[in-house]
Design a protein that fits this description.
- The chain has about 400 residues and is α+β, with helices and mostly antiparallel strands.
- It folds into 2 domains: about 180 residues, no CATH class; about 180 residues, no CATH class.
- The protein is about 55% helix and about 20% strand.
- The strands form 2 sheets. A 6-stranded mixed beta barrel has the order 4-5-10-7-9-8. Strands 2-3 form a two-stranded antiparallel ribbon.
- A hairpin with a 2-residue loop joins strand 4 and strand 5.
- The longest helix is centred in the C-terminal third of the chain and has 44 residues.
Length: about 400
């Protein structure tokens, strides 16, 4: 009975090919839109996850606080209250801390031979590489020996390497910062743009002690970056770090903090939540097309029941039961929705790839979403085909035979 119903359904749809196609068009567009929109949303989520990973996992950043002079407040980072001693104390005394790196940052002009480039100079400790998960493409990273000996060595980012050296050899080349020569010991792997659009590869890294003593002639650090052992420990580490720094800086209970501890996991969660909302919103908007397509199927099936009233009466007269009639029209609706769903999947995947090529947007087509889209399209056929099928099954055979 099932195969016969399928053959009859295909023959019935084939009699009005254009009408059947136009009816399926709603499902085709709906499924295609769902797949394409979800692919865009998932691509955006993957991009956010990638950018969050580039910041380092389970990271806290400690900045100096502000100061007030003659009523004018400096803003965050205006004071010089953090030292590398604070960094060592955090590592030794705060439970849950995995890695710590003092950092300094300054925009400077870098000169190599007859080329120059304005970039960011960053002083870091060896642990910075693991905290930020920053690979080295050529050469090596900063070592503890470099820090202890205040060595004049540097690693350069991809943007700096391209602008200073082009295709020339970079390793062991000499660059100058404030007329101080630095030997290039490594080239950093590309990180791309940050979530704010800044070029992370436009950077030169040197030992933080070298930046303190040779470049800036200071004894403090601009910030301290901390990696915790797990995301669950972030809040406790943040609170304990704040308590330790208050004690080290001899702050009284009525005094404000002279530092700021920023938890990057909060930023990561906010960015991830925004991407999730966008993905759900895109999928929901596209799902409306499926609803419209289902209503189109119901409309055409009702028309079909009216057109085929006499045929239904003849089938009942020769022994077809109500459930056979109902099954027949239900199969037709499901076949129409399933074919539309299959074509919609092809169009959805194709349009996703086209968007990726034309717009260079990140796209991620999930197989489970494709499977769900096909099942949903079949479900739409069942849901919106049930009423017309039931109406056909409830026709009076005698009245149906009289119908002209």
């Amino acid at each position: 009975m099932g195969l016969m119903s399928l053959r009859i359904a295909l023959r019935a749809l084939g009699r009005n090919k254009l009408r059947s196609f136009l009816t399926m068009l709603g499902i085709i567009i709906g499924v295609g839109a769902v797949i394409a929109m979800v692919a865009i949303g998932e691509g955006a989520k993957a991009l956010v996850r990638e950018q969050i990973a580039s910041l380092g996992t389970n990271v806290l950043i400690i900045f100096p606080g502000a100061f007030t002079q003659a009523g004018a407040r400096s803003g965050a980072g205006g004071r010089s209250t953090l030292t590398d001693g604070d960094a060592k104390a955090i590592l030794d005394e705060v439970p849950g801390v995995a890695l710590v790196s003092p950092t300094l940052r300054r925009n400077e002009q870098v000169v190599a031979s007859n080329q120059n480039w304005a970039t960011t100079i960053q002083g870091v400790a060896p642990e910075f590489q693991q905290i930020r998960k920053w690979e080295v493409e050529e050469g090596r990273f900063i070592t503890q020996t470099d820090v202890d000996r205040v060595e004049k060595i540097a690693l350069i980012g991809q943007t700096v390497a391209a602008n200073l050296f082009g295709n020339e050899e970079r390793l062991d080349a000499v660059i100058r910062v404030r007329n101080i020569p630095f030997r290039v010991v490594g080239v950093l792997a590309g990180k791309g743009q940050s979530s704010q659009g800044a070029d992370q590869d436009d950077i030169v890294m040197i030992p933080y002690t070298t930046m303190q003593k040779r470049v800036l002639s200071i004894t403090y650090v601009h910030s301290i970056i901390v990696s915790t052992v797990s995301a669950e420990r972030n809040q406790a580490v943040q609170e304990n770090t704040a308590a330790l720094l208050r004690d080290r800086h001899r702050l009284q209970p009525d005094q404000d903090d002279d530092f700021t501890v920023r938890n990057l996991s909060d930023v990561a969660e906010a960015a991830s939540a925004t991407a999730n909302v966008m993905a759900v919103l895109l999928g929901s908007i596209a799902s409306v097309s499926l609803l419209v397509g289902g209503i189109g199927i119901m409309n055409i099936m009702l028309v079909s029941v009216t057109e085929r009233t006499r045929e239904i009466g003849i089938r009942m007269a020769v022994g077809a039961r109500s459930r056979d009639i109902m099954l027949q029209f239900l199969v037709e609706a499901v076949v129409m929705a399933a074919i539309g769903g299959a074509l919609g999947i092809l169009i959805g995947i194709g349009s996703s790839n086209l968007i990726h090529r034309l717009m260079n947007w990140p796209i991620l087509v999930r197989p489970d979403i494709v499977a769900v889209a096909l099942l949903v399209s079949g479900g739409v056929g069942v849901f919106f085909g049930f009423y017309p099928a039931r109406k056909a099954a409830q026709l009076d055979p005698i009245e149906a035979l009289r119908y002209e």
